[in-house]
Amino acid sequence: MESETFRSRLAQGLAVLTAVIAAVAFVTFVTEEGLTAVLTTLAPVTLAGVLGWAVFWKPRAEVSEDGITIVNVWRTIHVPWRRFKQADSKWALAVTTTEGRTFTSWAVPAGSGFGARMAPNRQQHGGWAPTERKLGSTGTAEAAALAIAERVRELPKPDGAGAPVTTTVNTRLLAVLAGLAVLSVLSVTLP
Fold this sequence. Notes:
The protein has helices at about 10-35, 35-55, 115-120, 140-155, 170-190; strands at about 5, 60-65, 65-70, 75-80, 85-90, 90-95, 100-110, 125, 125-130, 165-170. With about 190 residues, it is α+β, with helices and mostly antiparallel strands. The protein has a five-stranded antiparallel β-sheet, with helices on one face. The longest helix has 25 residues, at about 10-35. The protein is elongated. The chain starts with a strand and ends with a helix.
């Protein structure tokens, strides 16, 4: 079975909007101030674009054959299926492990009531079939929880402890953001 990725469509739109605003700001500064503006504006504008990507586009939840991977700005968490206990979609996708630890993917929020009312219901043989209904969005916690439930149903029964839950700090991204922040401060403050 293929890997499924879940992220908020609104956040993706905000990432694109951030990049467009950063690009327009850069072009405007260079047009009005000349090529010397490249030195003072490139780092701050790049920081805005990378920060928009890091906060709005990069965070996601992935459901695969190996387990559930939650990618947030600061860290990435991988929960193997043998360590998975339950998924909750009350406010956002929350995955609880067999050790009782809960990890939340703020990038996959719960769907709104308006969105739920606007989603078309499918009928099967003249009757409602909510258990057969596949959520249309890949940006809500409910859709992610449904994909997790479907995947868990297909798994063989566990016969051992399996791989541990891994948490990795996103050091490369954080280093790029810190470096751009330092360059931004220097480009604006130095003559």
